[in-house]
Amino acid sequence: MKGNEVLAEAAMRAGCRFFFGYPITPQTELAAYMAKKLPLIGGTFLQAESEIAAINMVYGAAAAGARVMTSSSSPGVSLKGEGVSYMAGADCPGVIVNVERGGPGLGGIQPSQSDYFQATRALGHGDFYMPVLAPSTVQEMADLIYDAFDLADEYRTPTMILADGMIGQMMEPVLLPPERDLDSLPNKPWATSGHAGKREHNVINSLYLSPEKLEQTNFERFERYAEIQEKHQRQELMECDDADIVVVAFGAASRIARTAVRDARAKGIKAGLLRPITLWPFPTKAIEQVIASGASKFLSVELNMGQMVQDVRLAVNGRASVDFFGRTGGVLPTPEEVLAAIEAVAAGESVCQSAEPGAVGSLLPHPQHRKSSYERGE
Amino acid sequence: MAKPDCGSVTLPDYQQERIGSQIAEGETIKSARPHALTDAIFNYCPGCTHGIVNRLVAECIDELGIEGKTVGIAPVGCSVMMYDFMNCDMIEAAHGRAPAVATGVKRVHPDNVVFAYQGDGDLASIGTAETVHAATRGEKITVIFINNAIYGMTGGQMAPTSLPNQVTQTSPYGRDVSKVGYPVRIAEMVSTLDGVAYVERVTCDSRKHIMQAKKAIKKAFQNQIDGIGYSLVEVVSTCPTNWGMTPLDAFQWLRDNMLPYYPLGVYKDVVADGFANAAEAALDRAKDCPIAQQKKEA
Ligand SMILES: Cc1ncc(C[n+]2csc(CCOP(=O)(O)OP(=O)(O)O)c2C)c(N)n1
Ligand code: SF4
Ligand SMILES: [Mg+2]
User: Fold this and answer.
1) Residues of chain B with pLDDT > 70: what percent?
2) Is position B101 within any domain?
3) In terms of residue numbers, what domain contains A244?
4) The complex's ipTM?
5) Is the model's pLDDT at B243 over the cut of 90?
6) Domain that holds residue B3
7) Is the dihedral of CA A331, A336, A342, A344 positive or negative?
8) Is-contact A167 A1, C-beta < 8 A?
9) One domain for residues A179 and A75
10) Cα(B100)–Cα(B11) distance, rounded to whole angstroms?
């Protein structure tokens, strides 16, 4: 099965019976699969008139107590920002899938990770975060979306799967999670589904005209965020025990980085891989751990112009050097290019034009790291 | 405790309980507060028709006995705090998005009665796409549309429904149709869409019109209960505050200017046209289109 189809199948197995979306490449297979399968199991697939409408349908269905999701790709996710902010503000759980493509603007349709900021920082206005899970294999597409629904319900929060066109289109063997018994899904006494004369009327709302009340509500929400940060950081560590250089990479980039780290080891470089599985909460504890075990150099490898590297720098907080290597616009680096970057960092060189945090253009790859192997004629 | 004298009205028990103690013996209650309204005091400006329509919606909910299965959606606009006023479950939605939110709720709980209560800036400008598509999908929801020809909540800017030459904060020289185009007639537009069961335009400037408005709102709810299709009631309304008029002058301005532009009446009623529901009417309209006539297997 393709990664996108696995997302759909695992979501249904997690008890999702409602899907609202709007067509966009490269998430197409997900919606197509839902359109085919959901009606057969008593679910609802609805193609909305826009991503704005789709996310607001998600908001309505979530308010009504359902397990519900939507999927899109970068330009469409921008339109969902409004609805996601309302969901966060009204504490409505739901799953949003972004099978990223290059940007900004219409960008391209090739794999990219350039929506990291949007996902982890500002998918919509206001003081809020949402859990963001980043699969790197087709198996993880299944496992993470399955978990995403539980996380969303437990903390009453929108939750994102941040995938990319590469894993979405990829075929790999997968072990699908078991079918959830719908009766075992969490109760939602707060849902607006009619009070039937049995309780006070419920209100789903994000409006607080009193500043004190709004502040208090945000404080309470951030208590929940703190708990998520404490309990739900997830990552994979490879060869990090004695690593001097730790490559940090997620999703598709981590697949390339994994090969490069192995090749670096083969060359005697003490490299390791830290692969964030949760992008928010960012795995800061794992960063602490690798610093404690002696890492002195970090290299963030991303399919963008350097976004996650900011989280790495924040977590490292000056205790080690942090460099960045990225390709963007849908260009995938080869393992050899990443290896070259690791070797450069090992030799004390920078792979950016300037490794100074905050320097203008600092994250542009150094000219010699900018060309693809194809362009270099390799 | 003295039982209040309710004139010709028989109060249900819950209302006896609620207001009985406040009524002196021998006093006559002409009109009791509907149960579907909470005790909260409306925050609308004096003379604003929002209050009348909120109440009509609540009365219809009471009379149909549907409070326990009703979910209302009020997006931003002066009625954004409607969740404080209604005793049924309520959702506050983003500007213009109520029909999409209503779609989500209705798809999850088809047996709920779901209504959206929207202003003209909301429904006819930022939410036009959501409006048109919920209607054309035949969502079995009820939409109450408050057309007061202005953005009330934000202080009186030009609305899509502001009349030609109408002075507003953002059309200080009067709405210049040669530059900003013409008002949108929603009842007319929505009534052209398949999937729509019932569209009526009403107003509430007089007792008679208020009674007609209530009848229309009730029918729009009943249609949903009966699964007939999407219903929309446009209420030609006033905004005395931002029109800069007294409530009475505002009603006169409504009669003089709004009603000629927005004529009252039924714009679509598939049942009156002899169809069982909107789907049948749509099928009939496409009777010369073979693919549209194909029967779906269950
Ligand atoms: C996305 C967005 N844009 C703008 C606003 C500001 N806003 C709040 S209410 C409103 C206009 C409401 O006018 P209308 O729908 O006609 O309702 P009324 O207040 O007249 O009843 C606007 C523009 C908003 N809340 N959200
Ligand atoms: S501003 Fe206008 S629409 Fe809003 S409450 Fe006041 S009179 Fe009513
Ligand atoms: Mg208005």
Assistant:
1) 89
2) yes
3) 235-376
4) 0.91
5) yes
6) 1-32
7) negative
8) no
9) yes
10) 37
